[in-house]
Amino acid sequence: MAKKLSLSRPAGTVAIIASVILTLISVALAAGFMVLLGYALSHAFSGKSLSGMLGGLIFVAVMLGGCEATRVSIEQHSIYKEQQALQSRLLRNYFRQGPGVLASRSAGSLIDMMTSGTEKIQRYRQAFLGSMIGAMVSPLLVLSIMALLVDPWCALVLLGFVPLVPAIIFGFSKLTRKVSSSSRRRRNQLAASYLDALSGLETLTLLGAADSKGQQLAQIGEENRLSTMRLLAANQLILLVIDLGFNLLLLTTGFALTLWKVINGAWGSDITVIAPVVSMLGLTLLLLEPMNKIGSFFYVGMAGMANQRLVRAFLTGKAPSQGQGGDASSDKTPVTPHQSDSFLSLQDLTFAYSEGDPVLQNLDLEIKPGEWVAICGPSGAGKSTLIEVLKGNLLPRQGTYYLQGRALDADSSAWFADQSALVQQHTWIFTGTIRSNLMMVAPRASEDRLWECLETVRLAAEVRAFVQGLDTPVGEDGYALSGGQAQRLSLARALLSQRQLLLLDEPTSQIDLESEAAITQALAEVAKEKTIVLLTHRASALEFADRVLYLQDGVLKEIVR
What we know:
Layout: H1 10-46, H2 51-97, H3 107-149, H4 152-158, H5 164-199, H6 201-206, H7 210-263, H8 274-286, H9 289-315, E1 344-352, E2 358-367, E3 372-376, H10 383-391, E4 398-403, E5 406-407, H11 413-419, E6 420-423, H12 434-439, H13 447-456, H14 460-465, H15 483-496, E7 501-505, H16 513-526, E8 531-535, H17 539-542, E9 547-552, E10 555-559
Parallel strand pairs: 3-8, 3-9, 6-7, 7-8
Antiparallel strand pairs: 1-2, 1-4, 4-5, 9-10
Helix pairs in contact: 1-2, 1-3, 1-8, 2-3, 3-4, 3-5, 3-8, 3-9, 5-7, 5-9, 7-8, 7-9, 13-15, 15-16
Domain ABC transmembrane type-1: 17-303
Keywords: ATP-binding, Membrane, Nucleotide-binding, Transmembrane, Transmembrane helix
Domain ABC transporter: 344-559
């Protein structure tokens, strides 16, 4: 059986262990308090002094409160830290897998997984798991104290209830797993649909489809509500079974044992019998602690476990799990470094999505350092797929892709991604300012360097015309900029990254002719220092290219000019 992927850091594991230990200490202190309370009441009714007893009760109560406060503090701190660490891990994995991950997962479901999903996981792991483990072990501790300080035979009888605790917990986890998973799926579906509607709100309004989309969201929201109510109904049923079954039976047994001992005079016949009676009843109440955790288990535990399964599936996904056909490069023999004058080399490269027909077939391509290669072809020919392969986001089914003498495989895909800068036809501008969008790829870049890159892409004059210059807000998704300005800003960001390979996927397809001319001139200047692979339909962009290739039906052919 394969070992499950760990979602904890060493610090998180230490926090869970600390929670277990503190839970057991709290149970021991609570048990001691019950026994001490019994003896205090016995002293009170016997007319004896309570000074020592009261001091002991206060001391144990303070220790118990301090222990619980420490446990809660550790749990809350570790929830925050572990959630941050897990979110960073998920983001790194998302960037490693590349854009292809969205082929089978919506952006909304990913956002829900990385926000509320990670919170539920860490609340389960850091706040609930430790105390739950402690609560499952605590009956043995309580019964040991009962056997030593009250009555060993009563402890032995109540010991028969202990195996029921893990059995009930395991049974409830199996019973509610399907309901919890269904609720999570509905919640993810609602998040995905809501984000999709927000992203396309302008288009929905222009097409007059906003009302129908709103009705669709209302229907999905209602399905999510019904799923949540089924979850709550199952929880109430579980609580009813626990309260009327296990708890009532345990309390009745404990009370019956106490009554039997009193009637038989096993604990004495005078007023001092109060001490074992109170101690016995108090310790019996402590045995209910694991079952009291079941209510929390359903909400926190099942939600956390359902999200754990989702996160593990995401983290164990291979780098282009949505894109490559089966085993891809995983079964290849190790390749030796490629000795060639080429900067970039494709050798008999074939790529296919899953088990479908090849999108790229037996491609051979050699690109020298500083060369500008333009690739054109009809829509659906595989141009964007080729760019994703060159970026390292997708692994070939067969053949080899070399970049600076290194072969692309599952282990080197991250290195390949770091060697190139990609500018897509639908560029992404982050909310913030022009400066922040540039400096995210070079946090220590000087202002002169920022202006130099803007000059290169013919954007500096327009930025200087803005009142706030580099600190001009760009709005969400760059709405404050024109399409041409956004593309040139994206190109400037790529230049600032100082990567030698520029991959341009139709960068002028969505802009006006004037902006297209500015970008083309900028590329002509950039080509003096960078190696460029450009996908385009525009004839103007082909004019400055060193070579023009035509991609059709997954096959590359060079166009002689």
